[in-house]
Amino acid sequence: FLYSYCGLCVFRKQIETGASIVTGTRYVQGGGVHGWNLMRKLTSRGANVLAQTLLWPGVSDLTGSFRLYKRAVLEDVISTCVSKGYVFQMEIIVRASRKGYHIEEVPITFVDRVYGSSKLGGSEIVEYLKGLAYLLVTT
């Protein structure tokens, strides 16, 4: 996985804002994806819109994983997470948001892998929907 220019941006944003978590997002101005077909883009965007609508996490990209956590925050939030895979990325941000942690976003451009293939398939989508329902009930 490659992300454009965001490593320093994440650190800078954390220092400037004092955020507990800074997350790279594909879904704000300046962010995006490169190398995905239309179906993959629609799946990712749809998963995030659905989560936004049901969970109101205050973050535009719940399925991304380019993040910087303050250690104490990560230790606190991760101890309450039960999910795995794509759902874990969503759960950790939703739980941090519910606990009142300060979360900031920076735009990233995700560049698809050159070797191998995505793990995203039908079973992962079903697990994502089950995880979404679980978070809706438990948070």
Automatic annotation (TrEMBL):
Gene3D superfamilies named among the record's database cross-references: Spore Coat Polysaccharide Biosynthesis Protein SpsA, Chain A
Keywords: Glycosyltransferase, Transferase
Top-level taxon: Eukaryota
Assigned GO CC terms: endoplasmic reticulum membrane
BP GO terms, sorted: dolichol-linked oligosaccharide biosynthetic process; GPI anchor biosynthetic process; protein O-linked glycosylation via mannose
Recorded GO MF terms: dolichyl-phosphate beta-D-mannosyltransferase activity
UniProt-recorded name of the protein: Dolichol-phosphate mannosyltransferase subunit 1
Phylogenetic classification of the source organism: Eukaryota, Viridiplantae, Streptophyta, Embryophyta, Tracheophyta
